[in-house]
Amino acid sequence: MAETIKKISYTSGQLIVPHHPKIPFFPGDGIGEEVWQAARQAFDAAVAAAYGKNRTIEWIEVLAGQKALASGHALLPDETLDAIREYRVAIKGPTMTPVGGGHRSINVTLRQALDLYANVRPVRYFDGVVAPVVNPEALDVVIFRENTEDVYAGIEFAAESDDCQRVEQLLKDMNCNVRPGSGIGIKVISKHGTRRLIRAAIDYALDTGRRRVTMVHKGNIMKETEGAFRRWGYELAAEAFPNTAIAACDLPSQEVPFTPGKVVLDDVIADAMFQELLLRPSRYDVIAAPNLNGDYLSDACAAQVGGLGIAPGANIGDGMAVFEATHGTAPDIAGKGIANPCSMMLSGAMLLRHIGWHDAAARIDKSVAAVLKSGRMTTDLAAKREHIEVLGTDAFGAAVVEAINS
Ligand code: NAI
Q1: Range of the structural domain that residue 159 is part of
Q2: What does pTM read for this prediction?
Q3: Which of 83, 106, 123, 257 is least crowded, fewest Cβ atoms below 10 Å from its Cβ?
Q4: What is the per-residue pLDDT across 275-314, written as a single tens digit (0 to 9) for each?
């Protein structure tokens, strides 16, 4: 019985969260362990500050990456996947992926094995961080990137291989001419994959009081994939949210006032969206995009606010979610105690919000923001500024904990 009440469960589309849940984590490779240690202290401090002893998290370490290999396990052991399935919510650090060969990315495997179909990346400006644009604070968006389809489905044929020549012939039979000797990749976007992503984005916008969901696609060129993404998105909204999601084309003006409990659904062509985010950032709110557009947009938005290294992220499916620091293993600084733990901390805040512990989540967000604003930051952010106090990973973590407790 004691074991059962420590498990988050999922019933009728809702997470049921006990007051003392077990949550699996793996710190990952490279700087993972350093940033995890700093972030974990902030998570525990925020939960204690918000709820006293009434709520706690029992963090349970699961194996993945180099640590798993070193102890004689697979890179991503089945037990790890099973634990995430069982406990439903997990958090991870970065893991190393070899380029051009070697093992497959742990992140890609996790997303596919657990069907975590939405990659969610909130991007906002933190006062005190140097950004390359004049008004970085005008951008405050949450990107929902489809995580399982598009050109990431991995359907590729090497130029001149037998399979590629068969595909070439098949295309020729359908009157589609391909220059001989081409490599061929196939882009797949399904109705099912699109509908569940757009549903998640609209649900999120309604739950968090955001006013607009913008689908970003290149449907003018890729009519049957990205064009279909747009069409299926509008169809889903009309069917599933008839009174709460209003298609922009049904409105008298594009500049709609915010109506609580309702969102506007519109769409923008991908190339125009990059301009839009620079020229009219405050117009955008929640962005829903196929995999590749979402990948580009996530990094472009994070760079715009100077926060490429601090943006948090989550991979979310139905009743299951894995939160993650979005940076890599940073092998060049691993073990030096100078890594920036903000991405891991802010990902943990997303996790807390996901399980409904809003007060604790807000304390982390507020405290990270306060420490950065006070001019205390790790060397990666400090390099671009004067009059700041450079802190190591542990000291930054301690400063955030102090801010949480003050
Ligand atoms: P990276 O993000 O590890 O490093 C790029 C640059 O940013 C480096 O100069 C690094 O020192 C710096 N950096 C990254 N995170 C930082 C932090 N928290 N604090 C201070 N500086 C930080 O990207 P890179 O070098 O392309 O990849 C290294 C390894 O990480 C590769 O094996 C790659 O596959 C893996 N990776 C894993 C990811 C994940 O698990 N989510 C995401 C991106 C890369």
Answers
A1: 151-188
A2: 0.93
A3: 257
A4: 999 999 999 999 999 999 999 999 999 999 988 778 999 9
321 and 354 in a single domain? The answer is yes
Q: Write out pLDDT tens, residues 69-102.
A: 999 999 999 999 999 999 999 999 999 986 655 6
Q: With 90 as the cut, is the pLDDT of residue 192 above it?
A: yes
Block residue for tokens 């995009």: 289
Ligand 1 atom closest to residue 339's alpha carbon, by position in its atom list: 19
3-state secondary structure of 219: coil
Distance 24 CA to ligand 1 centre (A): 22
Question: Is residue 125 annotated as a catalytic residue, yes or no?
Answer: no
Say whether 271 is catalytic.
Answer: yes
Q: Which helix (H) or strand (E) holds 316?
A: strand 312-317
Which atom of ligand 1 lies at the shortest distance from residue 324's CA? Answer: 41
Residues 119 and 20 in one domain: yes
What is the C-alpha separation between 368 and 376, in angstroms, rounded?
A: 10
CA of 32 from ligand 1 middle (Å) equals: 10
Strand, helix or coil at 185?
strand
The C-alpha atoms of residue 198 and residue 195 are separated, in whole angstroms, by: 5
10 flagged as catalytic:
no
